Amino acid sequence: MAELLNVLNIPVDAAMLAAWRGWLAPARPPFYLTAAEAEALGLDTVPRDGLTLTPEVRDTITEWNIPPLADRVAWLTLADVDALPPGARRALLRAQVRHGRGNVPLGRAFPELGLPPGRFLWRPGQLTAGVLARLVAASGVPCQRAEVPPEVWRAAQEVLPGARALAGSFPQGSAGNCFGAVMGAAGTRGAAAEWMQREPFEAFLHEHTRPGGRDDRAGTVLLWRSASGLAALAASVALNGSGSLRA
User: What is the pLDDT of residue 200?
Assistant: First the structure.
């Protein structure tokens, strides 16, 4: 039987590790440039407008951070990047950092890999289980699912039948969000794996919740709205005097 890796107190199997590895080291990632930068580097590009990315690519490269002025995209394999002259390769990676593109780490942050200190791109072989665990753990806090007393789970079961399965698990991709997680914890099948829009979430609130509630009562939905009244963030809570769970 394969041994599970523990990341943030959550067991992770080989399939999840392979998925992380694929998101961090895709075969042909996008690189964002201005028209002048693309010309200086001699790279073929396509317009950024209308670009379609998977949710996982979008989140891995933090596409929402990239400013409009970087309106050209070069799709390059690792071999393409390696074939660039060293100066052009450094300029390409520096441009990604300057434009806010994520997943361009510093070699000095990973001394165990024996890399030069500057920017680099991940290769699948570098993303060992230990490196992946370190990367994921750096952006989270340890799960406390095991600390939740049995009575809390029992209290939550009636109103949050899906909470226990969701707690202490990593999502299978980037499609889920907080609205979907709340609906999934409340028992809406498939909601936790969907990027839930405000409209169906508001319909869920209208049908399944009522104003009021307390943060020490299982099934209370915590909801944050923007100044204009739009739902911005949500969580569902199970809590008693000795433990808590949010999904």
Answer: 95
Residue 39, beta-bridge partner list: none
How far is the C-alpha of 173 from the C-alpha of 240, rounded, in Å? 31
Place of tokens 């309106």: 71
The rounded distance, in Å, linking the Cα atoms of 70 and 89 is: 17
Neighbours of 137 (CB within 10 A): 15
> In Å, how far are 6, 42, 81, 160 from 9, measured between CA atoms?
6, 47, 37, 22
Summarised one tens digit per residue, pLDDT across range 184-209 is: 999 999 999 888 999 999 999 999 98
d(CA 95, CA 178): 32
Residues 6+ positions from 22 with CB-CB distance below 8 Å = none
Kindly state the tokens that stand for 91: 């300029």
Please write the tens of the pLDDT for every residue from 205-234: 999 988 887 777 777 888 999 999 999 999
* Res 245 pLDDT > 90: no
In eight-state DSSP terms, residue 158 is: T
To the nearest 10°, the Cα dihedral for 106, 20, 54, 33? 10
Helix (H, G, I), strand (E, B) or coil at 120: coil
Residue 155: closest CA among 142, 145, 144, 164: 164
Long-range Cβ pairs for the range 120-128 (8 Å, 24+): 120/93, 121/25, 121/29, 121/78, 121/81, 121/93, 122/24, 122/25, 123/25, 123/78, 124/21, 124/25, 126/25, 127/20, 127/21, 127/24, 127/25
Q: Are 127 and 114 in contact (CB under 8 A)?
A: no
